[in-house]
Specification:
57 residues; single chain; 81% helix; mainly alpha
Length: 57
């Protein structure tokens, strides 16, 4: 369970990259998905940093 929790930030970052790739390949004209992907990437990085500093093996 600790390993999955430590990798949660990476999964959130990958979800943000997936949303960004989807909006690029579909040639969407609105910025809503760009904002969501940016938020997911930043939050994922923060989760990764905070969780890995709190959980030590």
């Amino acid at each position: 369970m600790k390993v999955l929790l430590k990798r949660l930030g990476i999964f959130v970052v990958l979800a943000g990259v997936g949303v960004l790739a989807y909006s690029e390949f579909q040639k969407l004209e609105n910025n809503t998905l760009l904002i969501w992907s940016g938020v997911l990437v930043v939050v994922g990085l923060l989760i990764y940093i905070l969780v890995n500093t709190l959980i030590q093996e």
